Amino acid sequence: MSPLEPADRVLTTLRELLLRARRVKAQEATAVHPALHGGPWTLLVRLIEDGPTRACTIAQRLEVPPSVVTRQADELAALGLLERRVDPTDGRARLLAATDDARHRCGDEPRPYGRLVRSALAGWEPRDVETLAGLLERLSRVLEPADEPVDVACP
Fold first, then answer.
1. Residue 11 in 3-state DSSP?
2. With 79 labelled, which of 3, 41, 101, 153 sits at a CA distance of 20 to 30 A?
3. H-helix or E-strand containing 16?
4. Which residue has the higher pLDDT, 75 or 2?
5. Coil, helix or strand for 147?
6. 47 and 100 in contact (C-beta within 8 Å)?
7. DSSP of 80-117, one letter per residue?
8. Name one Pfam family in it (predicted).
9. CA separation (Å) from 6 to 3, 12, 13, 68?
10. Residue 155 has pLDDT above 70, yes or no
11. Strands (E), the chain
12. Which residues share a beta bridge with 95?
């Protein structure tokens, strides 16, 4: 068996990392609520980190259509993890917010995968971590899709 070419090694490693991240994300979500899964989990974490936010703003940040955010918000609300509030700056608009129960269930670190990665990198030389970060940022920039991101206009 011949060794993989460097680009193939990168692809294989990225695929493995993405699969691990997806698996950990699923575990994180079900630890908060057995019926919770990936998409709504991402929305919930975003609300916990950012605070109450308009759906269109979240759609812009996640580069998804507003209907996706609405559908996921409905799922979270049905589980008692999300509430809709009147926007104090515009009484016609609504804010999505994580409930107290959601914040309690998530604890101090809503992204245990982040803690896992930081822990794994703690034993590395700081310059190696900096090099890895720079290379990943560079790869991310060149892999930016050529098509335009989802256009979400917020009123």
1. helix
2. 153
3. helix 6-32
4. 75
5. coil
6. no
7. TSEEEEEETTEEEEEEEEE-HHHHHHH-S-S-HHHHHH
8. MarR_2
9. 9, 10, 10, 37
10. no
11. 82-87, 90-98
12. 85
Q: What is the pLDDT of residues 120-145, one digit of tens each?
A: 899 999 999 999 999 999 998 888 77
User: Could you tell me the two tokens for 90?
Assistant: 């515009």
* Predicted pLDDT at 13: 92
Contact 22, 120 (CB under 8 A): no
**Topology classification of domain 17-110:** Arc Repressor Mutant, subunit A (1.10.10)
Q: Which long-range contacts link 105-110 to residues 24+ away (Cβ below 8 Å)?
A: 105/32, 105/33, 105/81, 106/32, 106/44, 106/45, 106/48, 110/44, 110/45, 110/48, 110/49
Q: Which residue has the tokens 């991240």?
A: 21
Cβ neighbourhood burial of 144 (10 Å; 0-12, 13-18, 19+): exposed
Distance in angstroms (rounded) separating the CA atoms of residues 112 and 26: 11
Which comes out higher in pLDDT, residue 34 or 106?
Answer: 34
